[in-house]
Write a structure and sequence with these properties.
The protein is mainly α and about 240 residues long. About 60% of the residues lie in helices and about 0% in strands. One of its GO terms (molecular function) is fatty acid 2-hydroxylase activity.
């Protein structure tokens, strides 16, 4: 199904075109187009609607769920200091999951029609159109589906009292991640820490796309040796 010398028509829905690029997909998808107006994905209006999510939907939908899970641990008798501890642990686990998904799944190299198509839907679209503000955060319907296996895994690995706080912390980490991700693309930070986060992530998009996989921090890039080189270091390489 891969067409030789295929050229993507940006004026037509993209999802079912990109697979035809074959091995050329990787080069194409990592040449970003900087525009706040995103492309059309599908001809079908319902499918197209489901690919677009305003950033504030993430905290509005998921923060009440976070509170509900944390409250459950309190109701089951877990002390407030221990609740806080397991929430923090949940957030930390999320940061590792965030890094691992970004590095090993979102940046997997594909070359067949359906794998290219799937990768484009999952993450390739974000690298091709990094400033598309309606495709920066994960659609809530997809998040809800993924929460079920993660919740069951947390219940399997922890106690009934601890599991809600731990899961609530992980979900809070996800909310922080998606809001941070939107902000580093579209916010105008005035202080040093968010300005450095923005610079760090945009460096991943526009300079060295196989380094700097952390979004909320560079912690796991430091641990696993995927920190991008400094500009001075890059010049000397």
């Amino acid at each position: 199904m891969v067409a030789q010398n295929f050229v993507v028509d940006l004026n037509k829905p993209l999802v079912f075109q990109v697979g035809h690029l074959g091995e050329a997909y990787q080069e194409w998808v990592h040449q970003p187009i900087v525009s706040k107006e995103g492309p059309r994905f599908f001809e079908n209006d319902v499918l197209e609607f489901l690919t677009r999510t305003v950033w504030w939907a993430v905290p509005v939908i998921w923060l009440p769920v976070v509170c509900w899970f944390i409250h459950n641990s309190v109701q089951l008798g877990l002390s407030c200091p221990r609740v806080a501890l397991f929430v923090v642990i949940g957030i930390l686990i999320w940061t590792l999951l965030e890094y691992s998904l970004h590095r090993f799944l979102f940046h997997i190299e594909t070359k067949t029609y359906w794998w290219n198509t799937l990768h484009y839907l999952l993450h390739g679209c974000h690298h091709k159109h990094p400033m598309d503000g309606l495709r920066l955060v994960f659609p809530p319907a997809a998040t809800a589906i993924l929460l079920f296996p993660f919740w069951n895994l947390v219940k399997l690995l922890s106690t009934p009292v601890v599991a809600p706080a731990l899961f609530g912390g992980g979900l809070l980490g996800y909310v922080m991640y998606d809001c941070t991700h939107y902000y580093v693309h579209h916010g105008q930070p005035k202080t040093e820490v968010p300005r450095n986060l923005k610079r760090y992530h945009l460096n991943h998009h526009f300079r060295i796309q196989n380094k700097g996989f952390g979004i909320t921090s560079s912690l796991w890039d430091s641990v696993f040796g995927t920190l991008p080189p400094t500009k001075e270091g890059a010049k000397s390489m």
